[in-house]
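Target protein
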Amino acid sequence: MFSIGIIKAIFLGLIQGLTEFIPVSSSGHLEIMEYLFGSRADNFHLFLEFVNIGTLLALLIFFRKRLWQIIQDIFCRKNYRLFINLIITTIPAGLIGFLFSDFITETPFFSSPFTIAIALGTVGLFMIFIDRLPHLSSLKDENTLSKPRALLIGLAQTLALIPGVSRSGSTIVTGRLVGLNSQSAAEYSFLVSIPIMLGVCLKMILSSTSRAYVAANLGLLIISNLAALISGLLAIKFLMKFLKQPRSLQTFGYYRVVLAGILLILAMIR
């Protein structure tokens, strides 16, 4: 699977967990790591899909109380609004991902360092610009989000299929644009990523190729997912506190722009 075995699997799992939730693009960073290692495995996209299990578990653990409250509200018929909005936001990315994810993962253009760099830098500039806008937060929290605004976040989430964009980055930025503060936008982003990740896991289970891949690489996948689980929990906790600070998105925006520049330089000199 990997040229350096367990060490590389742990390292990539840690990168996945940290960057899945911090809006700097997990797929972009993993693609960069594989690019810099100088070896591109034919089944690397399968690893990227399976390492999502660890980050999904991190989400379920961290938001277990919030998820339980949503379930109780549904069965007690108290509040359907957030649940319906989560479904609305999930549909575009779920549909596009189901139809075109294989095409994207198998097309060299989307894994090109130039494509990743452009995506990293573009979203980074949006983050810097949005945090400079005055009085952008007009909604109390994600529970007050309207259906059209929820759909807009869902449409933005489809862009995360491109490495370098970031699922959390695209949804947090759009959440800010429709009136959520940074912390509420991040929490909504994390909640809406759960059904997407569940869908990815279901798709993997139904695929005979994926099941064969698991059987052949079970040990490394368990280790990498444990690393992703631990680093994912730390990343969520850090981000939810960090976003309470004013103009906190700018920090990630500048990081993305700098990383994009470095990646472009590396791509041109190789």
About this structure: Residues 5-269 form one domain. The radius of gyration is 18 Å. The chain has a mean pLDDT of 85. Residues 208-242 form the longest helix (35 residues).
